[in-house]
């Protein structure tokens, strides 16, 4: 069946009363009241009431809920509570029959466990809460890209199959690649840094991979990352960019009223995102926690901080030794780095900073961290060609979406999540 | 160095004469003419002439081409041929020194082989031809996404790590996944089809993987694919969408005048893309080629067709047996399928069609093609829940970009291409 003449339900309106229309969608509900039947038809854009009378009722024999139908009929004004107009059916074609019992209730009236929903994700997408999460994700992606484009960032695609286990090398999936060993990239870090040399400001939104045997609501082995890198920007500049992009995305999401209603969560729009230094956070945690400068903040510490700061906030100026080799220390205090994390409560959403651009300092930092500069030879070469100072960040999109739509488990915001126990469907 | 106060070269203009500015970029050229030196400074947005006089010339001692500098100075009108304004330098800071000899000439005056350029891709990105290809790619991606959004397609992200070697299973990379065998996805085909059940119209632009030992200018083992799938559309409808998107992207690219000039190729904007059936193509090839209905079109045949049709054209209505199991035959002739390829000359850019949505027909097609329906159990289940009729296509973005910018090898349009011989950098 083609799109020829078919209109979306959202495009019907009162002035169309009397017009013939062709609708297509799935049967969300049906009721027979003697000589008249009512079909509630849903498509991706909305819900329509279809009135079926007389001989046409026979064409609904055996019609099950969730079956796919095409309906032609005439638009009419209605007194039904939830509709502006209804369609008086003239023909109903059953295009695809849903066989019951279904594995989950797509209307969400009977609650299903997450595993059941993920195993029947296609049907789960008829649950308007689920569909709305992914429509909001679409809108957020659109907002992020528009924001980056207008700030002169060029979209890039870095390789996901890489030849050396760089960046520490732990937790990488490996594969055989035409007789060689290759790895799946954990981030675009080294490539995006190199690209600042000629393109200046770059971004990538893509899937990356982490072979970590984690079983939490915030770790997946395949995740979507939003990455930027910009020449001639300091870490405070890219923090500004992140703050603005987050705000713009939250505004965009909050304007999607139908989806916000379906998820039952109004996206919080942060005004100014507070910036707290690591040292201030250590002070806030107090001596009870036994944390002092140089200690990493454990999950328990972040949960305490999250209680004090339930919304978005930056944790800045981390000890250099806690950050990756490419993070640039401060000029006046090499123990402190030009770095930040974006937090939402206890949850880390993004991590970034200024990068080292001097190849000799980079080499010594690699050695300090017990990494072999020879493994980074391809990368270090580029720093001899005139590498601009640059800064950037990576943000976990799945976590950001979980915060934005108000769910605890990132799996709610990923179509087909991958974790140690879940490889299909 | 932060962005504070720094402006992009493209934002300088005559009315700014007399104003102080801070620029940053790399030294494309420098000439000393006695008491005055000229630096040609490039950033991602353009080229500026910097005039350096008197004592300041000393700060340029040892300055090499391609080194990164920050320049503060005063804007002045100029009589120099290629510039509207110039900057009279007051301070020059060398931020990063380029060590010569460089592996390639980033100005492209000395031609470098592709391998050398790919090995020094960061520096190659200072070649304005190369940078322009990737800026055009950015613009094309933006145009495609805008076009899809406005046609109510929702962006999705399907898993790239998959649990079964579906879709034939040949040419898949495999990896160990927490003690199980997993594969890298070759396409989002099955997932995107399932998503039409609730989201109706979906698209994905992402990397996919093919473990094929090919050594050509048009095959890579990691490639970017643009995929759409739409419920209630027939193959002619999604062909219309593809035709419009291609046209819109070509228009968007053709409006990037600076980049078009740098690539030396004006993007061809197709008006109506001709539609030729497979049977017509077989007739055109004539009996000399020895091709008759049901034979696949070989590279040599496509090259002959490409000579007759040097631009964009659709090849439609392929024999059912030449197409994947999920392609839907015509109602009146099961030997012919509702399918198409988008060609540019001999090069296949996209392949698509109407899909089967009846699970029993799908099962028998799988068996006909020697595939085990048990391997597709997760997928086939979804077809019992009320799967709408749907159609879609996948387009190789790298090939489309190669056509659009007028290069023969897709590697020119991929940052870090992957093939059997190339796994790094």
Automatic annotation (TrEMBL), chains A, B:
Superkingdom per UniProt: Archaea
Protein name: Aspartate--tRNA ligase
Cofactor annotation: Mg(2+)
PROSITE patterns for this protein: AA_TRNA_LIGASE_II (PS50862)
EC number per UniProt: 6.1.1.12
Gene source species: Cenarchaeum symbiosum (strain A)
PANTHER family with a match to the protein in the record: ASPARTATE--TRNA LIGASE, CYTOPLASMIC, ASPARTYL-TRNA SYNTHETASE
Residues where Mg(2+) 3 binds: 348
GO biological process, one term: aspartyl-tRNA aminoacylation
Cofactor note: Binds 3 Mg(2+) cations per subunit. The strongest magnesium site (Mg1) is bound to the beta- and gamma-phosphates of ATP and four water molecules complete its coordination sphere.
Catalytic EC class: ligase
GO CC, any one term: cytosol
Compartment annotation: Cytoplasm
Residue sites binding L-aspartate per the record: 167, 210, 351, 355
Positions of the Aminoacyl-transfer RNA synthetases class-II family profile domain: 134-417
Alphabetically ordered keywords of this record: Aminoacyl-tRNA synthetase, ATP-binding, Cytoplasm, Ligase, Magnesium, Metal-binding, Nucleotide-binding, Protein biosynthesis
Chain spans, region Aspartate: 189-192
Pfam families per UniProt: tRNA-synt_2, tRNA_anti-codon
Family: Belongs to the class-II aminoacyl-tRNA synthetase family. Type 2 subfamily.
């Amino acid at each position: 069946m083609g799109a020829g003449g078919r209109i979306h339900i959202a495009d019907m309106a009162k002035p169309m009363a009397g017009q013939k229309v062709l609708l297509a969608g799935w049967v969300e509900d049906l009721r027979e009241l003697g000589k008249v039947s009512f079909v509630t038809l849903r498509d991706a854009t909305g819900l329509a009431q279809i009135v079926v009378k007389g001989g046409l009722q026979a064409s609904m024999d055996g019609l099950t809920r969730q079956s796919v139908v095409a309906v032609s009929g005439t638009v009419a004004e209605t007194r039904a509570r939830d509709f502006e107009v209804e369609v008086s059916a003239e023909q109903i074609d059953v295009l695809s029959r849903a066989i019951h019992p279904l594995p989950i209730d797509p209307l969400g009236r009977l609650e299903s466990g997450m595993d059941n929903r993920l195993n029947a994700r296609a049907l789960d997408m008829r649950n308007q809460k689920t569909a709305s999460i992914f429509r909001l994700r679409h809108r957020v992606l659109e907002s992020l890209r528009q924001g980056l484009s207008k700030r002169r960032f060029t979209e890039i695609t870095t390789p996901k199959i890489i030849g050396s286990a760089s960046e520490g090398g732990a937790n990488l999936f490996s594969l055989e690649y035409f007789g060689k060993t290759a790895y799946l990239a954990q981030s675009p870090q080294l490539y995006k840094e190199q690209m600042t040399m000629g393109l200046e400001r770059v971004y990538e939104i893509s899937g990356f991979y982490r072979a970590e045997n984690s079983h939490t609501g915030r770790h997946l082995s395949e995740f979507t990352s939003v990455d930027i890198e910009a020449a001639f920007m300091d870490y405070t500049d890219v923090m500004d960019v992140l703050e603005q992009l987050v705000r713009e995305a939250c505004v965009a999401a909050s304007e999607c009223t139908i989806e916000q209603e379906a998820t039952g969560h109004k996206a919080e729009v942060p005004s100014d995102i507070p910036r707290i230094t690591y040292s201030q956070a250590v002070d806030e945690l107090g001596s009870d926690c036994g944390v002092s400068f140089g200690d990493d903040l454990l999950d328990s510490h972040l949960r305490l901080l999250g209680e004090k700061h339930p919304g978005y906030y930056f944790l800045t100026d981390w000890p250099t030794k806690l950050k990756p080799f490419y993070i640039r220390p401060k000029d006046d205090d090499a123990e402190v780095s030009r770095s930040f994390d974006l937090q939402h409560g206890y949850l880390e959403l993004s991590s970034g900073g200024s990068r080292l651009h001097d190849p000799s300092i980079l080499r010594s930092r690699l050695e300090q961290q017990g990494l072999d500069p020879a493994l980074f030879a391809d990368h270090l070469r580029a720093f001899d060609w005139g590498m601009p100072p640059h800064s950037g960040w990576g943000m976990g999109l799945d976590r950001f979406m979980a915060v934005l739509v108000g769910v605890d488990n990132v799996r709610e915001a990923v179509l087909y999540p991958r974790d140690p126990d879940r490889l299909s469907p």
